[in-house]
Amino acid sequence: MAAAREELQKDLEEVKELLTKATRKRLRDVLMAEKHKLELEIKNQPPPKPKDAAEEEKSSLGGYTVKINNYGWDQSDKFIKIYISLNGVQKLPAENVQVNFTERSFDLLVKNLNGKNYTMTFNNLLKPISVEGSSRKIKTDMVLVMCRKKREEKWECLTQVEKESKEKEKAAYDTSDPSEGLMNLLKKMYAEGDDEMKRTINKAWVESREKQSKGDIPMDI
Questions:
Q1: What does DSSP assign to residue 28?
Q2: How far apart are CA 163 and CA 171, in angstroms?
Q3: For residues 202 and 215, what is the distance between their CA atoms, to the nearest angstrom?
Q4: Whether this model's pTM surpasses 0.85
Q5: pLDDT string in tens for the chain (221-residue length)
Q6: C-alpha–C-alpha distance, residues 158 and 108, integer Å
Q7: Measuring CA to CA, how many Å separate 120 from each of 27, 83, 157?
Q8: Contacts of 17 (CB under 8 A, 6+ apart)
Q9: Rounded distance, CA 12 to CA 179, Å?
Q10: Cβ-based neighbour number of residue 134 at 10 Å
């Protein structure tokens, strides 16, 4: 949770730095929109659990807690589905399998399964989910977590961190050249943005290319 907030904060600082270098009005508008988006994401991050509350919950569980790392997932038009294998989970009382959802995260807690507790946390989901429309189902030797998508669109991965990791594997960002840094950020914003953001970036791109062809500006935006 803290790591996700830290990554968002780093992104915000980079956008602020690029804002100081951008001179074109339309480009500054796009960067300001991204700045506002990042500030909202940071604001919507779930607050850290107070230490005393966390310790109280831990002590009430008994036994010891195992962090779940293995899972499978797929998706439909409306749902992201996460499959967690746990032998005998169907024998537990329903209240022993708890999932708490926020718009960009969920926490799974399975209590007292064969003398152990199991937890799984996903923070900074790739896209927003509907808290009210999300749920969990208990099946034979399996828990199915169903995250209802707010928009019916395909997810390429589960979290923003996963997406950024994949992007960094393809090509590292080089911001030593300010114009190159702006181009890389615009490409990232276009890939992640909604339809309005993409229209704004396209318009800025076309206008800048037209002015460049007329000799108004020397650099490629």
A1: H
A2: 13
A3: 20
A4: no
A5: 566 777 888 888 888 888 888 888 888 888 888 888 888 887 777 766 555 544 545 545 556 899 998 999 999 999 999 999 999 999 999 999 999 999 999 999 999 998 899 999 999 999 999 999 999 999 999 999 999 999 999 999 999 888 888 777 665 555 555 566 667 777 777 777 778 878 888 887 777 777 666 665 444 44
A6: 15
A7: 40, 11, 17
A8: none
A9: 18
A10: 20
Residue whose token pair is 């999300």: 134
CA–CA distance, 41 with 121 (Å, rounded to integer): 18
79 backbone φψ class: left, alpha, beta (φ>0; ψ -120 to 50): beta
Cα distances (Å, whole numbers) of residue 215 to 79, 81, 208: 50, 52, 10
Handedness of CA 28, 2, 45, 192 (dihedral sign): positive
* 3-class secondary-structure state, position 149: strand
Tell the residue number behind the tokens 């799974």, with chain if given: 108
Q: How far, in Å, CA of 134 to CA of 28, rounded? A: 37
